Structure prediction request, 449 residues.
Amino acid sequence: MFSKVLIANRGEIALRVIRACKELGVGTVAVHSTADADAMHVRMADESVCIGPPSGTESYLNVAAIIAACEITGAEAVHPGYGFLSENAAFVQVLEDHDIKFIGPSAEHIRMMGDKITAKETMIKLGVPCVPGSDGGVPTIEEAHRVSDEMGFPVIVKATAGGGGRGMKLALTKADLDEAFSSARLESKTAFGNDEVYIEKYLQKPRHIEVQIFGDGKGRAVHLGERDCSLQRRHQKVFEEAPGPSITPELREQIGSTCAKACADIGYSGAGTIEFLYEDGEFFFIEMNTRLQVEHPVTETIFRVDLVKQQLRVAAGEEMTFKQEELEIKGHSIEVRINAEKLPNFTPCPGKITTYHAPGGLGVRIDSALYDGYSIPPYYDSLIGKLIVSGTSRPAALARLHRALGELVIDGVETTIPLFHALLDEEDVQTGDYDIHWLEKWLDKQAEA
Ligand code: ADP
Prediction:
């Protein structure tokens, strides 16, 4: 095992990694911007290094400063968390050149899955079902019309470099295609410096189902079932659960083993998530995330595993201790994302926390870097915590979520907590009857009322 790991991230995910390191007896180095000098991850790590000014580009994305921090502290490996440099193949390459281990997959796999057209082509070859669509990139508007006419509207134009819901435009009818095509290209060019797009059939009422996989990098891989993340706003997940309410054990085994085999075949190393849209009993691949996901705790809960410890083990060259036949689901788990945002418009709401009280008791986990008196800086993502509950069944987990939300106190800033109170009153949420568009429609209705 490593003797010291640097965590190239902040907030709750930095704490999550520090906790796993501590339990393994691994030393920890936090890095932080000047705006985060008082942050909890800095307090909790054994050592810390300031790597730059507040802006993420100059600090948490500053590769030279992170490498220097490794060299100063003697850290042998870097855990990237999620976001920031977690899916940056060039960063992995630089670490390798400096003999520092990246806790994650190879640069080659990150590159392969980071380009959505290549990812899709790879998945098709590996026998993973994909959304029907164009054969690779669509370079001209004439080609876009030809492909879409053949497939039938509605279609979605997607950027191969896209992420975080950007570079994605819907064309409900042929008349919308010119606008969708040019704006997807422009948005992608601006955000990612790449205007290559492809076209997919737009699914009207799918659920978002993602499969957690884990590979040892030597040709062995397992799956840890699925998560249902269908409750989304602007393609961002807000409420996640495992197992998926619509997935039977047979379906789970079928899609899970297909995903595990695909990862074994490419020699994938570490944690990864294969995302699907699921409609009328069929799975359609949309993308693969080559990192730990925000919502990984619901999987950890139902399988009683620690994904971060396994990441550390595999990166250190040890054997992964997962065996497919031993991975068995127990109960149900739900996560809600607590953001410092003002409803109803989800406007970011940074500021000083005057009171923080975390819920507790059986089956409650809170992953958060908040503390009394902490000032949430305005420069970063508005996620300030995740409340994760478990229960013997979905209704039991929902009841526990209701109870735990009632105990949670975050004063001083506005948060998304009231959204979850309201959602728990909805029959569709209670029965798990929703698709990826449900939340947006519900929010529209609330706004009208
Ligand atoms: P990103 O990398 O930007 O998150 P994804 O490809 O993962 O993009 O898609 C994000 C979300 O966009 C999905 O969860 C889904 O809600 C919607 N989406 C993507 N592709 C389709 C499609 N073909 N049909 C319907 N909705 C889609």
